Amino acid sequence: MKYIDEYRDGRIAGSLAAAIRSRVTRPWVLMEICGGQTHTIMRYGLEDVLPPEIELVHGPGCPVCVAALETVDKAIAIASRPEVIFVSYGDMLRVPGTNSDLFRVKAAGGDVRVVYSPMDTLKIARANPTRKVVFFGIGFETTAPANAMAVWQAKREGLENFSMLVSHVLVPPAMRLILSSPENRVQGLIAPGHVCAVMGWREYEELARDFHMPVVIGGFEPLDLLEAIRMLVCQLEDGRAEVENQYVRSVTYAGNQAAQRVMGQVFEVTDRAWRGIGAIPRSGYRLREEFAAYDAGKLFGTEGIAAAEPADCIGAQVLQGLRKPAECSAFSTRCTPESPLGAPMVSTEGVCAAYYRYRRYAAIEGAR
After folding, report:
1. Helices and strands in the chain, H and E counts
2. Where do the structural domains in the chain lie, given as residue ranges?
3. Each residue of 44-71: pLDDT tens digit?
């Protein structure tokens, strides 16, 4: 199919892999931040065509995976109320909370519904004026504009039965935390193209400068990622630390300024808890005070809910590039997509789910 097949051309992939092999002279550790990029790498076996000097580790760019356990518990508490219609993207229904998940709430009689757009939640609210309709607003900067627009539209219409449980997280503060760690091994970053399509890449220039680390904004097809790896290797071998844009067909320096404006009207930056990692300063969005009437956390009194992460899930270390999924003793045994211990095994962008689906047997054999 045109515009897809051209980014999956095996001949070009071989040429890019050869260019990487001809340029690399020493080991380098590169991190692809986005879970969608991880799944492409696993699905197309890109690691198998790279030289042994290149090691890929996986970042925290899966919004389902990093939604804090306490946030999931809040969602479960709200969804369990009889007056509530709880609306979410499908991936979140199977994410385990402390004692349950949203699928179990639905099975027990809770009105939990799946949508593909937050604007669909407004339709549900209009059609059910006697019910409280709550949308689970998760995601990175990518989904924030649509979620902000839903809240803005609800206020404009005076929809008093709509609210949002906000769990938005921001990529650059999380990467700053990871790169600042004394355990950090990452030497180059493939930045998430869809986030940069919204936000541009100013903040990544600060990361490149502060950590003297090359950053390449990458797309999501096999050739995108091979080209991004080639660009990173060239920077590393030359001793450069710049931001380069591989994903030129979608990303500009300033990003989508209209989207940024609506986000700025509805949201403000706040500290945010990340699953397994803990609170990261100024790493998330919350609703501004003028939209407080649409804040489900406040409306349903869930702000005091806290939860401890399960000790037998190493998802937080995997999402920081410190360990691989197969190093977890529960991988593919006690933790599977059908019975997950942690969110990285649930999401369609989760790194553990990618290993399980595409590299399960090789990963287990390599970990022995």
Report:
1. 17, 11
2. 315-367
3. 999 999 999 999 999 998 888 898 899 9
